[in-house]
Amino acid sequence: MTTSRTADNLVYEVAGLLGIVEAGETLGSVEYDTINSAIDPVLEEVSAIVNIGDRDDIPTRYFQTLARLVTVHAAAKFSNTPLDLAAVAQHETRLRYLAAAGPSYQPLKVDYF
Fold this sequence. Notes:
The protein has 4 helices and 2 strands. The longest helix is centred in the middle third of the chain and has 20 residues, at 60-79. A two-stranded antiparallel sheet has the order 1-2. By secondary structure, the protein is mainly α. The chain has one domain (4-99). Helices cover 57% and strands 4% of the residues. α1 crosses α3. The N and C termini lie far apart (49 Å).
């Protein structure tokens, strides 16, 4: 099982979510470039939530949520409409949930003054 995915995987995942490509098909250069150009701004936008240092090393844990976030941005470019900020906020909330540390179930050590 792979632990990371590439930006190319992300482009084709977004294209599938947008419904512009079927499995086994290739994207046209305009569609590929439009989706690909949305990746870096999205990764920069969520850098305060999750740090993706390399666009070709996206942790699988965040891949689907990032794909949906890039889909929102790319859909706005394709349709020439304003960005759906409610959808962006929803996916960013999901990223915060995925990035949060789980419970440690360890006793809390108290330091009295």
